[in-house]
Every structure is written in structure tokens, then in C-alpha cells.
């Protein structure tokens, strides 16, 4: 089937990405090669991301001051919160605005896979954990606004509602405050276990990743269950990685905005101010 104008355009810029990546293979400085590859992926994604999003690299923080590991690519929503510290493309990013992260590798062994998954696990279970959020922590003063918001969504009659449904909806919004985590690999086919027994490996060892792409090889997506797309032509595997990732970024960003727009949240006071009175107000325990 003949490609459309947009499909041809996407194929051409992906081809340019791979040519750039190939051109730096003989560089002797591995750190520089890694930085260039991250820049190549950043330039590629920016061509398809809506303007409300941007991409950086660095550390992700939450309201309690906990910090993530160094993250190759951070996709964040500028309309929620900008980076608190930003130099060139490096920065410190508040978890509320981080929609997705991507680790970029030249090759990826089984050990690398597990390390990437552990980083994503720490990000999801510690940095993006509802217990560390003033919105989803039941002992926080802001939790009341969260509860009332979800209560209104379920039933406009505040005297007639199902508490378990409200809690379930709160957990849904809490889930959508966790970033999508991806892995992009430029060379190789990955560890043998990914080829020989992929479902067991992915389900048991890589349960915190959403998307895995091996350039010119295949793309795994965790859409309720893991599914694979192999290259046929025109860089289909990379197009799938980009398109599905961005579609889900838009969905999660919309859920977050609908929640955050439901009430005035003093982000800068929560993160920046260190007065005792401010802390007591935002972490008011019953």
C-alpha cells in the first residue's frame, strides 16, 4: 500500500535518526556517544509531540523531597509544571508533570534490562507513590478535595454515593500519576531469553516497562499484555513505539489535567516554601 505524505515524512526522519546513530559508532568516548543518541531520540520525538510537552534529562522529585535515579529522557507536561532547575536539556522535574521516561541504550543485555526495570520500579513505587503525595495520602488536608472531586464524578447527588467506587476512582487517578516507562535500543536483538521465552521474561522481569523498541528489529508494547511488532518495512517498529507512546501520553496528560483543574493546588508552596506553618497546613493530620 502506498504511503501517505505523513507516513513518508515519518519514515524519512527515522531514517535520518538511524544514519546519525550509525555515524557515531566509531567514536571512542562512550559517554559522548550515549549523549548523542539521547539527543537523536529527543529530536525525533519532538517532531511528533504536541507543544504542551517537552523533553529533558535529569532527576525526578516528589513533594517529600525523594529523588529518582538519573533518567535519560523525561517527557513532561509544561502546562502542569516546568522543571524547577533547567540547564540546557538537563533539569530537576516535579513528578506531577512527568508523563513518561525513556532509557536509551546502544545494546541491552539481560542485566541492563533488569536495571532499567528496577529504575522504573523505583520511580513508580517510590517517587510516584500516592503515599508520598498530598493529593492521595488519606491523612493529608488535600485528600479531602480529591475525595470530593471523585465523589462528584460518580454521582452529582452527594447524599447518595458508593464509597468503594469513590476509592476506586481515586486509585485510578493515582495510577495515572505514574509515568509510562520505555526503553529504546539501537543495536542487537537483546538477551537470548527475550527471543527464546519472551512472555515469561517480560511478565516476570520487566513488569514496570510500557514499551521496548529495538531499532530495525521489533517493538514490544505492554497493552494489558505484551505484544510484539516486527519490522516489515518503512521502520514500522519505531513508528509503533512513537505513535503508541504518544497516544498514551496524551491520554494520561488529559486525566491529570482534569484532576488538577478540579481545585487550586499550591504547587510552588508545596515544593518551594520551607516555613513550618506551610508544612503544617499542607500535611495537616487528623
Brief summary of the model shown:
With 286 residues, the protein is an alpha/beta fold. The protein has helices at 5-23, 30-46, 110-127, 143-154, 163-175, 192-196, 198-205, 236-260, 267-271, 276-282, and strands at residues 53-61, 71-77, 85-87, 90-94, 98-105, 180-185, 211-214, 218-223, 225-230.
Record keyword descriptors for this entry.
9 strands, 9-stranded mixed β-sheet, alpha/beta, 45% helix, 286 residues
Structural write-up:
This protein is an alpha/beta fold. The chain has one domain. The chain contains ten helices and nine strands. The protein has helices spanning 5-23, 30-46, 110-127, 143-154, 163-175, 192-196, 198-205, 236-260, 267-271, 276-282; strands at 53-61, 71-77, 85-87, 90-94, 98-105, 180-185, 211-214, 218-223, 225-230. The chain has a nine-stranded mixed sheet with strand order 3-4-1-2-5-6-7-8-9, with helices on both faces. Helix 4 (143-154) packs across helix 5. The longest helix is centred in the C-terminal third of the chain and has 25 residues, at 236-260. The model has no long low-confidence stretch (mean pLDDT 86).
The quaternary state of the protein chains shown equals: single chain
| Average of the residue pLDDT scores | 86
Number of strands: 9
Distance between the termini: 64 Å
> Which regions contain 5 or more consecutive residues with pLDDT less than 50?
none
- For the record, the count of structural domains works out to 1
Amount of helix: 40-55%
Given the helix and strand composition, which structural class is it? alpha/beta
The side-by-side strand order for the widest beta sheet comes to: 3-4-1-2-5-6-7-8-9
Coarse shape: globular
Report the C-alpha radius of gyration, rounded: 21 Å
Q: Give me the number of helical elements.
A: 10
* Strand and helix order: HHEEEEEHHHEHHEEEHHH
Amino acid at each position: 500500500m502506498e504511503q501517505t505524505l505523513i507516513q513518508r515524512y515519518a519514515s524519512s526522519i527515522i531514517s535520518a535518526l538511524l544514519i546519525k546513530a550509525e555515524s557515531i559508532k566509531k567514536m571512542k568516548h562512550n559517554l559522548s556517544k550515549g549523549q548523542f543518541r539521547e539527543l537523536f531520540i529527543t529530536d525525533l520525538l519532538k517532531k511528533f509531540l504536541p507543544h504542551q510537552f517537552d523533553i529533558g534529562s535529569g532527576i525526578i522529585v516528589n513533594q517529600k523531597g525523594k529523588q529518582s535515579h538519573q533518567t535519560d529522557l523525561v517527557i513532561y507536561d509544561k502546562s502542569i509544571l516546568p522543571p524547577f532547575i533547567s540547564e540546557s536539556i538537563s533539569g530537576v522535574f516535579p513528578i506531577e508533570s512527568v508523563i513518561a521516561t525513556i532509557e536509551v541504550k546502544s545494546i541491552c543485555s539481560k542485566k541492563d534490562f533488569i536495571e532499567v526495570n528496577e529504575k522504573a520500579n523505583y520511580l513508580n513505587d517510590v517517587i510516584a507513590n500516592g503515599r508520598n503525595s498530598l493529593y492521595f495520602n488519606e491523612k493529608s488536608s488535600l485528600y479531602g478535595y480529591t475525595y470530593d472531586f471523585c465523589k462528584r464524578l460518580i454521582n452529582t447527588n452527594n447524599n447518595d454515593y458508593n464509597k468503594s467506587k469513590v476509592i476506586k476512582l481515586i486509585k485510578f487517578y493515582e495510577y495515572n500519576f505514574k509515568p509510562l516507562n520505555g526503553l529504546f535500543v539501537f543495536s542487537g536483538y537483546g538477551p537470548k531469553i527475550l527471543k527464546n521465552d519472551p512472555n515469561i521474561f517480560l511478565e516476570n522481569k520487566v513488569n514496570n516497562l510500557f514499551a521496548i523498541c529495538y531499532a530495525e528489529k521489533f517493538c514490544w508494547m505492554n497493552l494489558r499484555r505484551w505484544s510484539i511488532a516486527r519490522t516489515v518495512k518503512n521502520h514500522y517498529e519505531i513508528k509503533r513505539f512513537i505513535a503508541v507512546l504518544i497516544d498514551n501520553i496524551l491520554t494520561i496528560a488529559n486525566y491529570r489535567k482534569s484532576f488538577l483543574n478540579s481545585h487550586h493546588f499550591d504547587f510552588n508552596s508545596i515544593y518551594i516554601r520551607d516555613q513550618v506553618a506551610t508544612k503544617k497546613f499542607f500535611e495537616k493530620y487528623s
